[in-house]
Amino acid sequence: MNTTPITDIAIVGAGPGGLTCARVLQRHGIDVTVYDMDANRGAREQGGTLDMHPDSGQLALKAAGLMDQFTALARPEGEQMRLVDSDGTVLFDNASRLIDGADGGHRDGGSPEIDRGRLRGLLVDSLAPGTIRWDRKLTHAEPLGGGAHRLHFADGATAETGLVIGADGAWSKVRRLVSSAVPGYTGVTFVEAGLDDAGTRHPRLAELTGNGTLMALRDNRGLVAQRNSHEHIRIYIGMRTDEHWYDRAGVDLADTTAVRDALLKEFTGWSPDLIGLITETDRGYVNRPLYAMPVPHTWEHTPGVTILGDAAHLMSPFSGMGANLAMLDGADLAQAIAAEPGVDEAIHAYEAVMLPRSAEAAAGAAEGLGSAFAPDSTEQALAHMAKHH
């Protein structure tokens, strides 16, 4: 075992997992530097909304000392889940179960929603000034021996570290140090759209969506509408299809009209209200094929390096666990670093917990995606929601 004290810790990736890890390390008085490819904190949109689970994301927030700040930003009403058939008939709606007294306050054990951007901002602001080095795109990490690594960035800069933590997402460069595995296409593609000022400009669709998430599923097709802050509704148009469906359809993804027409063919016979989620978008369309790591994804211990979040266990969004697990990974790793005497001990302690946990979650995510995009997806989704909501 390498019991040399851990110094010069580098986290690659300023997503929820990497930032949580950095925050918990700093709470323990441990120095850390975070490197991220974004030019600055506001360089790109962070995506939709997340539900923070009490047994994962909320545990990480508590370890980070940020639970009160999170509660002030979260939306408990966002837990609403509504399932409708392709004709618009409501099959399931848990809205009435979310009421917690007259004040509508946070329910113990609930999973309130928070926008990804707000969560990232909360975590960024919690770190000591200068912790994050923006505009640092990692090209590769070079082993130097003894667990040390030299990080090489696209702008020519380098940094040496005694522990490199890969929190750099699905296409992680750090993962290559421990594993040759890469994400594979799941067979399902989402095309993202969105409604701005939904209550004013799209009141019918806003009412249909409700305060949380609307799902409509039928025969390997699905529409998901997700309420975000500031009256924005994010829409995912899902299809079980080949990865390059647009080539087969002769569609240029930059041609909004052509994409819309191709999608409408996929949803022939669906109710006019649901079709509005496709046609009334204010932001065009973004093609998002879904990828996942092999299940289980494991590796042999590698001195001076480990990975967390999507870099370790990318899974479909139908798990609802991606960001939650990434944050729990980050908190667990930081606490192991604080508790163990050296690099190897900390990595072993963390991976012993993270690997089996992520394998179980990833298997569940694959099953969830398979049931949501199946010939009998409506029936399967209704049975799942009745059991878990």
Descriptive overview:
Pfam families: FAD_binding_3. Keywords: Cytoplasm, FAD, Flavoprotein, Monooxygenase, NADP, Nucleotide-binding, Oxidoreductase. Belongs to the aromatic-ring hydroxylase family. TetX subfamily. One of its GO terms (biological process) is response to antibiotic. The protein is built from 13 helices and 17 strands. With 389 residues, it is α/β, with parallel strands linked by helices. The chain folds into 2 domains: 219 residues, FAD/NAD(P)-binding domain (3-Layer(bba) Sandwich); 141 residues, FAD/NAD(P)-binding domain (3-Layer(bba) Sandwich), CATH 3.50.50. A 7-stranded mixed β-sheet has the order 5-4-13-14-15-12-16, with helices on both faces. Strand 14 and strand 15 form a beta hairpin. Helix 1 runs parallel beside helix 4 and helix 1 packs parallel to helix 11. The chain is globular.
Topology:
Layout: E1 9-12, H1 16-27, E2 32-35, E3 49-51, H2 57-63, H3 67-73, E4 81-84, E5 90-93, E6 113-115, H4 116-125, E7 132-133, E8 138-145, E9 148-153, E10 158-161, E11 163-166, E12 184-195, H5 198-201, H6 203-209, E13 213-218, E14 221-227, E15 233-240, H7 245-248, H8 256-266, H9 272-279, E16 286-292, E17 305-307, H10 310-313, H11 322-339, H12 343-372, H13 377-388
Parallel strand pairs: 1-2, 1-11, 2-7, 4-13, 11-17
Antiparallel strand pairs: 3-6, 4-5, 8-9, 9-10, 12-15, 12-16, 13-14, 14-15
Binding site for NADPH: 44
GO molecular function, one term: FAD binding
Family: Belongs to the aromatic-ring hydroxylase family. TetX subfamily.
